[in-house]
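Quick start: what a row looks like.
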Amino acid sequence: MRRIMSTAVGAVIGLCIVVRAAVAAPAAGRPNIVFILGDDWGWGDLGCYGHQQLRTPNLDRLAREGIRFTQFYVASGVCSPSRAAFLTGQFPARHRIHGHLAAPRLNAHRGMPDWLDPKVVTVARLLREAGYATAHFGKWHLGSGPEAPPPAEYGFGECRGVLCNGSAWDAGDATFRPRSTELFIDETIRFIEANRDRPFYVQTWLLDTHARLQPTPEQLRAYPALLGALKIYYSAATAADSQIGRLLVRLDELGLSRNTIVVFSSDNGPEDIIIGNASEHGVGSPGPFRGRKRSLYEGGIRTPFILRWPAAAPAGRVDNETVLAAVDWLPTICAIAGVPVPKGWELDGQDMSEAWKGRPVERDRPLFWDWRFGVAGHVINKSPRLAIRVGRWKLLMNPDRSRIELYDIPRDPSELDNRAEHEPEVVARLSERLLRWHESLPAGPTDADAGSNRYPWPQQAD
């Protein structure tokens, strides 16, 4: 009898433990996604990436509570192609988007379309068809003007933006620019509150810290001891960081933080101060890297990438091993959300969900870049036209095989020790892959001096 009672008591205790465990571990379900994309933030512009003066306490908090990736690459040294890669999982050169989308005349001169084809597969459309609420707020820059498709045609159920058609802010309002991040975050919070009971995907793509910056007197008070460009740039970045902090607090208050993936990144490296409209803004930091915006050296295409996902990603992790890229965004998000990618859509990126959960991944697919236009600034920023990253090696060259440069990136992240003469087999193997990829792209015009390191270079603005 005693043994029977003991067994019964043990069963009850076991049942209680199971019930308690079930209550203590809420069903994860499909995660929410909040994607904050800064504009022209350099790899070194955040405190958590080593900046000693610029204060970014909320992004630093995001890194403490999540994973900070140090080898993340965008698909271009300028904004429009970078954004196309995030949305499609493909290199933007496939879509003839080689530079920033501008007025039709300039687009035609560059052999580019006026907008990203709305028929392409996008991460937003796939998620929306799978039941996610989707939204885009902020800078679009994938096509604007009277005939351009609005973001809604790419799968966004809600949108309000800049450099787009559809519902938009008045960017000409003098009070808009210094408050733009605040306004974008307001819309993001409103959308999250309205969709808190279903999975959601929201893009909050900032104008900060792209020129021209016009911080308010209140924002400038954040750095009373500084003057000039540093004061303007740091004040604008810290003001944007404070608005990101407001979003993080609201996610906490709504009880959504645990199963919400929050990502912060940047569309390309920091602007160069010699650009005419950026004299107050070209002091962003590429960290230890060579190159800036428009360059295929690391400083132009390697940007911050911070991911927080308390339900699955360990806090305080720094991933120095995984080579992560913008083209991985679509396949990774779809894998995590359980959404299949259409079989006919050829991905250039790969599923990196294991890395997002804290387990470094060795990259299977190469990364390619093709930059057909000018590079501003000092000759050290002026990269060759083409680049490929495979494993630890990064090869840069022009299509005519001039300026062959090979760097062992983990050992030489500043790209100062050209190993091309010492590693002829690596050069032969990577150059063959790079040129084959380049030949597969749609033909188009290039600047006469593209890939040249002549100095000076005519100034160009984005």
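That is the whole record. DSSP finds twelve helices and 14 strands in the chain. The longest strand covers residues 32-38.
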